[in-house]
Amino acid sequence: MNELTSRSxxxxxxxxxxxxxxxxxxxxxxxxLLRYGLTMQRVPPGEDIAGSxxxxxxxxxxxxxxxxxxxxxxxxxxxxxxxxxCMDKARRKDLHTNAGGDYDEEYAVCFxxxxxxxxxxxxxxxxxxxxxxxxxxxxxxxxxxxxxxxDAGDASAWLLEKQLIDGxxxxxxxxxxx
Length: 178
Known about the structure:
The protein is mainly alpha-helical. It has one domain. It contains eight helices and five strands; from the N terminus they run βααβββααααβαα.
């Protein structure tokens, strides 16, 4: 990726400090997913997560199912959710593991995951910024917060054009239709 990149976990920071599904409970996360027609499928601890692009504890996507374990980071859950929301109908129809998309869509995914963090108790936008930085998302301005506040106008415009957020950067709770 250009301005927005994600490093391998070996290069990134401290992963033990990010919020995980077990920290807030599935009952806090599932309603957000359901608003987009996604169902949460829980995988037992230690088992592989089918549909996970990155492997390990990262969330997986297969069709309209988001696969997670108790140790899946919340940022991963929301990131994959937002891929589902932002992809076009054709990709969503055949979705298995790789969400695809271009740079503009990836930026939009990151922007939307930050917005959706406000809809999960104990997470919120500030904690999402911190967890994205800890995990190793990198932005040319040095942090997720700096990117979101000062350099993400194109991501916001993309989401607005696709009618996924409103003019106040709030979710419209709908999937991309084109």
